[in-house]
Amino acid sequence: MNRTAVSTTHAIAFVMALALGIAPRAKADANACAAAINGHHFAYATTGSIVAAPIASIVGPFAEVGVQYFDGKGNVSFRFNASQNGSIGPGTATGTYVLNDDCTGTFTETSDGFTAHYSFAAADNGYDFHAICQDAGVVVTRDARRQF
Fold it and tell me: In 3D, which of 55, 49, 42, 57 has the Cα closest to residue 135?
């Protein structure tokens, strides 16, 4: 074999070994993410603004701090204190969630007849997540850290 053929053969072998090595690891990381999120509580802070809504009194700045629990079966629950355009108070909410293999997902938060829709991405092996509300007229983000 000439030098070019040997180099090409080594390059192909390296790429194949790399690809085969990454595939099992990607699956393991997805399992680690699911294990870190499912069945755990996350302390969170949500901030932003509601810029358009069917009820004028809720338009304005928004902040919420609380605990969010992913039950591992597609259900999520919340306990929080919120400030909605200066009106402050505690609350609870429920919803559903979907966690994808790439550690992204979606969840809903339903409280007092309103449902918010979020997209999120887990970080730090599922110990943190960052979310953004996907509803029109809402500019709100959430940062969370797994408890315990």
Answer: 49
